[in-house]
UniProtKB/TrEMBL annotation:
Originating organism: Halomonas urumqiensis
Catalytic activity annotation: agmatine + H2O = N-carbamoylputrescine + NH4(+)
Gene Ontology MF: a single term: agmatine deiminase activity
Family under the similarity heading: Belongs to the agmatine deiminase family.
Region (Disordered): 1-21
E.C. number: 3.5.3.12
This protein's UniProt keywords: Hydrolase
Catalytic residues as annotated in Swiss-Prot or TrEMBL: 362
Superkingdom as given in the UniProt entry: Bacteria
SUPFAM superfamilies xrefs: Pentein
Pfam families: PAD_porph (PF04371)
Protein name: Putative agmatine deiminase
């Protein structure tokens, strides 16, 4: 395993210059990586309800590909007991369980090599709006996985999380200005400078900037809760028809950008609307089981959650999506199944994951097949 620190003054150090690029999530995978929840100020009742939900997600994805679950030492035996034998449990310490954001962004090369990007991480905003402190264990996860896999690691000099981007594998990336241009991430970089980082690091040619992410998304607007590629030239967008709901304007802003954009191949995008659940709010009993700490994000009774059906995981033969609202789950699952006619869509009850601030896509990270 070797590390390369990216230097804009030396273009030959970039993944793009060396022939690497980020493949689409719907491209073939070798594995999926997850982390085990246990943080008491994120997950209620000692994370036991969340652990059951994570285990169900892991089992669903394991129908499609190998699943690794990283666990802190003090939870290793418990996780090994709760997860079936074909789920691979590895000791991999973390501050919380959001593998999409703290794990690697994997890259592939035409000659069959695998590499990863190691972004800077500051818990979604550092001391200016971040969700917890410290995040030292999270920062080491990418290095450890690179060591485990024996692959090159490109250390990128920007704060960025995996949930902030989606690619089509053909040169196009979608992100949000709310997140990537947020002052609590990279205050010294403007939009053009961030685009150059994305071009050089991920091998993309064209960036589509959506204004904002979902309403009250505590990640400062991650795109994976709002919109994602389901195929080249095809995207799915969280939708809301209630004009009194703040999500209404957000979704229409995004739709206007998407419908007037083209991808790196010059194609217009076909936008599929996926109605949001709810709105959903934290119940009194759900908030009462969470530790209240001064350095963590508060989770109070009545708070609205950034619920979205778009936050699904695309596996080799399955799509694992959250079930969040009995009034809308069946219709949403039908829409997702229509988007992936060759895969089996598995719905997993995911409110316990949502209570922690994210969902299925946020807790997973695909390892592509080179």
């Amino acid at each position: 395993m070797n590390e390369t620190s990216l230097d804009t003054a030396r273009p030959e150090t970039t993944p793009r210059a060396q022939g690497f690029s980020m493949p689409a999530e719907f491209a073939p995978h070798d594995a999926c990586w997850m982390l085990w929840p246990q943080r008491p100020d994120t997950w209620r009742y000692g994370a036991k309800p969340a652990q059951r939900a994570f285990a169900e997600v892991a089992c669903a994805i394991a129908e499609s590909e190998t699943v690794f679950v990283g666990v802190n030492d003090d939870q290793y035996e418990n996780a090994r007991h709760q997860l079936p034998a074909h789920i691979r449990v590895v000791e991999l310490s973390s501050n919380d369980a959001w593998m999409r954001d703290v794990g690697p962004t994997f890259l592939t090369h035409p000659d069959g090599r695998l590499a990863m990007v190691d972004w800077e991480f500051n818990a979604w905003g550092g001391l200016e709006g971040g969700l917890y402190f410290p995040w030292d264990k999270d920062r080491r996860i990418r290095t450890k996985i690179a060591e485990m896999l024996g692959i090159p690691r490109f250390a990128a000099p920007v704060v960025l999380e995996g949930g902030a981007l989606h690619v089509d594998g053909q040169g196009t990336l979608i992100t949000t200005e709310e997140c990537l241009l947020n002052a609590n991430r990279n205050p010294d970089r403007d939009r053009d400078q961030m685009e150059r980082v994305l071009h050089d690091t991920l091998g993309v040619d064209h960036v589509i900037w959506l204004p904002r992410g979902c309403h009250l998304d505590e990640t400062d607007g991650h795109v994976d809760n709002l919109c994602c590629f389901v195929a080249p030239g095809e995207v799915v967008l969280t939708w809301c028809d209630d004009e009194s709901d703040p999500q209404y304007a957000i979704s229409r802003e995004a739709l206007e950008v998407l419908e007037t954009s083209h991808d790196a191949k010059g194609r217009r995008l076909n936008v599929h609307k996926l109605p949001q659940p709810g709105p959903l709010h934290i119940a009194e009993d759900e908030a009462s089981g969470i530790d209240r700490l001064s350095h963590s994000h508060p989770r109070r009774p009545g708070d609205r959650m950034a619920a979205s059906y778009v936050n699904f995981y695309i596996g080799n033969s399955v799509v694992v999506m959250p079930l969040l609202d009995p009034a809308h789950d069946e219709a949403a699952q039908g829409i997702v199944q229509g988007l992936f006619p060759d895969k089996r869509v598995i719905g997993v009850p995911a409110r316990e994951i949502l209570l922690g601030g994210g969902n299925i896509h946020c807790i997973t990270q695909q390892q592509p097949r080179p």
